[in-house]
Specification:
The protein has 395 residues and is α/β, with parallel strands linked by helices. It has 16 helices and 8 strands. InterPro entries: ADH_Fe/GldA (IPR001670), ADH_Fe_C (IPR056798), ADH_Fe_CS (IPR018211), BDH-like (IPR044731).
C-alpha cells in the first residue's frame, strides 16, 4: 500500500456485565435524553433492555424506547426514529442490538442532524455534515458497525439498499459483552462469522497492482484462521465465553481498518449480496457465503498469486509452484467447504430454496449497477454483464 488512512475514534468497553455501564458512558459523552433503539423481543425477553434502562436511570438520564428494527434495516424505521427524537428532544442515540440496529441508529443520527430527507444522503444526492452522537450495546458479532463508519439502509420504495460511510458515522462508545451472544441461533452465529470473514476478504483482494503491507496480510490471515477456529467451538458450545469473545473482537477488528483500508478493497461480494438480501430478505452473512465462491472463480485469474497465498496461509494448502492456479482453486474450494461445515449456503439455490429466474438475475444486476450507471469491484472491475454472469454462476 502506498498510503492509507485509519480513523478509529470509538471507545470500547469489553467484558462481562458491561451493559450495566451504558448510562455512565452515555452521560460521559454528553447525553441528557437518550433514544434506546433495539430490534425484536429478545432484548426484552432476556432482560437486557431492563438492565440498560436501569443504568440510564442510575445515571440520571431520561430515555425513550423505539424497537422493531428488522434485519436489513428499513428507511421507514429511520424516519420514525428521527420524528420521535425531534418530538422528545433526544440528544443521544443508544443502539442495543447487532449491525441492523446500529445501522438504523446511524440513519436516525444522520436524519436528526441534517436537513431534508435522510434518504437523499444515502442516495448520494446530498452530503452529510453531522450526526447525532451514538453509542452501542452489541448483541451480535457480525457487521462490525460498532466501530466502523458504515451504515446500510433499505428503502422499501423499490427495495433499494444503499450504504453510507462518513467520518460522522462512528459510535462514541461500544459496549461488548460476549455473554450477550450466547443465545443466538446457530444459523445466526454462523452467518455472523461469515460476515466477519468476508469483511476481511474484501480488504484482502485489492486491485492487482496494489501493494499490501505484509503485516496487514498477516493480521488478516490470522483473523480468518481465528474466526474459523472459534466458530466451530461456538457452534458446539454456545456458552463458551472465550470462543464468543474471540469472535466478537474479530468482528470489530475486521471492519475498523485493522485488516486494511476499506477504500483499497474490492467489495463486490457485499454489493452483489445487498441486492439478494433486499429482494429475498436473507441473512447478510448467508448471502455472502452464497456468492463468494462464484465471485472468486470469476475473478481469480486477475491475480492468481493472491488467491494462492490465501490458500497456503489460511488453509495450509501446499503451494504448487508449477501450477499456482491449482493452489488458488483449491483454496476457493476450501473456503466453500468451511462455509458448508458451519451450515452456510454456497449457492443461491441453497440460500433461497430455488434457482434464480433470468428476470430475477437481470433485476439483481440492474439494481446492483445502480440502473447501469456504475461498475463494482477493484480486484476486477465488474460491469452489469459481469454481475449477471456471477449471479448465474451462483444460482
Amino acid at each position: 500500500m502506498d498510503h492509507f488512512q485509519i480513523h478509529a475514534p470509538t471507545q470500547i468497553i469489553f467484558g462481562k456485565n458491561t451493559e450495566n455501564e451504558a448510562g455512565k458512558w452515555c452521560k460521559y459523552y454528553g447525553a441528557h435524553k437518550v433514544l434506546v433503539h433495539f430490534g425484536g423481543h429478545s432484548a426484552k425477553k432476556s432482560g437486557l433492555l431492563d438492565r440498560v434502562c436501569a443504568s440510564l436511570k442510575d445515571a440520571g438520564l431520561e430515555y425513550v424506547l423505539l424497537g422493531g428494527v428488522v434485519p436489513n434495516p428499513q428507511l421507514s424505521m429511520v424516519k420514525k426514529g428521527v420524528e420521535l427524537c425531534r418530538e422528545e428532544n433526544v440528544d443521544f442515540i443508544l443502539a442495543v442490538g447487532g449491525g441492523s440496529v446500529i445501522d438504523s441508529a446511524k440513519g436516525i443520527g444522520y436524519g436528526l442532524a441534517n436537513p431534508g430527507d435522510v434518504w437523499d444522503y444515502y442516495a448520494k444526492k446530498k452530503e452529510i455534515t453531522a450526526c447525532a452522537p451514538l453509542g452501542a450495546v452489541l448483541t451480535i458479532a457480525a457487521a462490525g458497525s460498532e466501530m466502523s463508519n458504515c451504515s446500510v439502509i433499505t428503502n422499501e420504495d423499490g427495495m433499494l439498499k444503499r450504504g453510507l460511510s462518513t467520518d460522522y458515522g462512528y459510535c462514541k462508545f461500544a459496549i461488548m459483552n460476549p455473554e450477550l451472544t450466547y443465545t443466538l441461533p446457530a444459523y445466526q452465529t454462523a452467518s455472523g462469522c461469515t460476515d466477519i470473514m468476508v469483511h476481511t476478504l474484501e480488504r484482502y483482494f485489492t486491485a492487482p497492482a496494489t501493494h499490501q503491507l505484509a503485516l496487514i496480510d498477516g493480521i488478516a490471515e490470522t483473523l480468518l484462521r481465528n474466526v474459523m477456529r472459534y466458530a466451530k467451538i461456538a457452534l458446539k458450545e454456545p456458552d463458551n465465553y472465550d470462543a464468543r469473545a474471540e469472535i466478537m473482537w474479530s468482528g470489530t477488528l475486521s471492519h475498523n481498518e485493522t485488516t486494511g483500508d476499506r477504500t483499497f478493497g474490492d467489495w463486490s461480494c457485499h454489493q452483489l449480496e445487498h441486492e439478494l438480501s433486499s429482494m429475498f430478505g436473507v441473512a447478510h452473512g448467508a448471502g455472502l457465503a452464497a456468492v463468494w465462491g462464484s465471485w472468486a472463480r470469476y475473478v481469480y485469474k486477475e491475480n492468481v498469486g493472491r488467491f494462492a497465498q490465501l490458500a497456503t496461509n489460511v488453509f495450509h494448502i501446499p503451494y504448487n509452484f508449477r501450477n499456482p492456479e491449482a493452489t488458488a482453486l483449491e483454496g476457493i474450494a476450501a473456503m466453500e467447504s468451511f462455509f458448508h461445515h458451519i451450515g452456510m449456503p454456497t449457492s443461491i439455490h441453497e440460500l433461497i430454496g430455488k434457482d434464480l429466474t433470468e428476470d430475477e438475475i437481470k433485476e439483481l444486476a440492474y439494481k446492483c449497477s445502480f440502473m447501469n450507471t456504475r461498475t463494482i469491484g477493484q480486484f476486477k472491475v465488474l460491469t452489469i454483464g459481469d454481475m449477471e454472469n456471477i449471479y448465474r454462476a451462483a444460482k
